[in-house]
Amino acid sequence: MSSSVRSATASSVPHQVIDWFLRRRRKRMQMISLTAKIHFMLDVVICCQDALERGEDHLGVLYPKTAILRVVLEVMKELDQLQNPENLSLVIRAIYYLSQIKPSTPRDMETHLLDLVLQAISKLEEPEDDPAGQASYNNMRADLPHLLQGLWEEEPSSAHLLSILNHLRVWIHSPKGQERAWAMETMAAFLRNSTALPDFHLPELVLQLKGLLTDIGICVTDAKEEVRPYAREILRHLCPLLPSRKEEILIEDLEEEEEEETEEEEEMEETEKTEETEEG
Description:
This protein has 280 residues and is mainly α. The protein is 67% helix and 0% strand. Helix 6 packs across helix 8, helix 8 runs parallel beside helix 10 and helix 9 runs antiparallel to helix 10. The protein is globular, with a radius of gyration of 22 Å. It starts with 13 loop residues before the first helix and ends with a helix.
């Protein structure tokens, strides 16, 4: 996540834009320009950064986090205006920096935010023949695991971890290979960057985790090749969290399977080269 997003387009006095939005929260969001919404998101990020740099974890009584999050939610509902990697990345950064501010994000609000973010990402097409657009798209995807990490660290419990992973779990069942790929990539990056993942002991949570592991295990043989290594990585992160270490056998089996697939691919390439040489 970028450490700073200060820009010439941000207002000189960030709190003024936030004030304006908080006073007009009841106004229909459709009537507010996209430029104003972008200013709001930029200023939320800047205000949070300024507070954190001062060693503070709050924005003051005049700028309650929950009220700001409500505005972010209303902006997010205008998805037609956010079908742009740069705008969506800005929204992701705003939510991330708010996760660094007290109090913790209410769970129901977190659910709505993540649902809207993931839906917006699913509607984006990766730009082709546009290096700048592709860079923005890649940056947006890279920001998503940091957002998940920031939200999880507000309450680093096993139940919360499952809740966040289940948001991505929906997308690994997508019929579209691209959606399965970014969902698995995001889940793997989130787990890779998160430290001190909690063990699972409550029976109901263990059962839920095993269900998730079953789904991830299926992805090891996904038709889209890009999905498979992420599935293996996710299993390596999650299996040790179970109270029983028997799942480690599954990891070893996956590693052996991966080695066998590599050997088969090498043999096929060698065979193709031999056939081409003979034909020549």
